Structure formats: C-alpha cells, structure tokens
Amino acid sequence: MSEHDSKNSELQRDLPFSYRLIRPENASGECLFVLHGSGVDEATLLPLARRIAPRAVVVAARGRIRQEDGFRWFERITPTSFEQSSIRAETAAFAQFAVEAARHHEVDLTRATFLGYSNGANLVSTLMLLHPGLVRQAALLRAMPVLDDAPATDLAATRVLIIAGAADQTYGPFAPALVTLFSQRRAEVDAHIVASGHEFGAADAAIARQWLAATSTPAA
Q: pLDDT of 56-99, one tens digit each?
C-alpha cells in the first residue's frame, strides 16, 4: 500500500459497518468491496486487493461479530455450520451498507467487484442469493455454501470467480457444491483450484487479476 493509500485508509464508522476507504490518485472507476476472513480485520486483504486491481477504489469493511482478537461476518455453530438467522440479518445489513457506501463515496455499484475470503466470501455468496441484483461480480476465495435453504435466485447477470485450495481440508470438499449452486442459478462461473491450503497467496491474486481484466462492463 502506498503512502497516499495509507493516508486515506483510516477506519471510518459513519455507516453500519466500520470500513476503510482507499482511493488511488489514478483511480480507474472500478471498485472493490473487500470482505476479510474470520478472526482478523479489514486490513488483512488490502495487499491482495492492491495486487488484483491497483487502480480500483477499495472499500474494506469489517465484520461485526467478535471472534477472539478479530471479527467475523456471522455466527458459527461449527467450522462448517452456521447460525442461519445471523447469516440473514448480517447479510441484509451489509446490503444496506454497500448501497450507502456507494452513494456516500460516489462509486458505481454496477462496476463493483465483491472480493471475499473464507467467512467474508461466504457473506458475499449470501449477498448474491438473498439480495439479487446488488452484486454483478464476485470473487470468492476458499468459500462454501452456508445457507441451509438457498433460494432459487436468478443470477444470469452475475459473474462469479471461485478459487478453492487443493489442500484445504475444511472448505475444499464443499467447493464443487458451491460451483453447482451458482451454476444452477445461471451465474457465469469461473472455477479454479490452486496448490494451496485454506490460505490465499500469489496464485489467487494472479487468477483474480486475469479474471477481472477480462471483464466486459455490464450495462447499467
């Protein structure tokens, strides 16, 4: 992150979720909403976001559920089972946040990509399923289906990148079900498996950067 980025990334608390906003001097008009994994905070994905889209405006939000020294996006029962009422409540709150943040900072949601990792990627997936039309593009790293009863949402206008880790023993086995979930709902799905565990790295950045570069901006 550049010195300019650092000066513009103070934690802001004026909306339902705390967040950091980074607007590069040579901003391209693209926007990344960035959602971190569990037990950490919004700063952890900023280096990855800059590698993927260095000229994008970044809105890095912080989950509202406390977990140890960090945060998560909704309550969990086990590592792969989640509290459904918490998912729906926090997803609805984030949908409102995304709209308000876009309006407040004058970014175009139709050109926004939602980048999520682990628990953050799971929130992005529920955002697409429960609030259709809000997310046009989503990059999901180490994600899994979390809704017990996923609605039959039509996602024909949505592009989804799913990157699973070959050695991710927790979420990896669920990746095919996630691909099927979005494919059945007519999303344009691009699925990859990288030689990694649950952690993300350079391979994820390279795939996401190439996928984003291939985007043809959808009509508003």
A: 999 999 999 999 899 999 999 999 999 999 999 999 999 999 99
| Inside any domain, residue 189 | yes
Answer for the pair 189, 160: CB distance below 8 angstroms, yes or no: yes
Tokens 């960090």 label which residue? Answer: 70
Q: What is the DSSP letter of 40?
A: B
Tens digit of each residue's pLDDT (9 = 90 or more) over 26-50: 888 899 999 999 999 999 999 999 9
What contacts 7, CB < 8 A, 6 or more positions away? Answer: none
> What is the extent of the structural domain holding 65?
3-213
Residue 68 lies in a domain: yes
Whether residue 218 is contained in a domain is answered as: no
CA 123 to chain centre: 7
Is residue 219 domain-resident?
Answer: no
CB atoms within 10 A of CB 57: 24
On whether the pTM is more than 0.90, the answer is yes
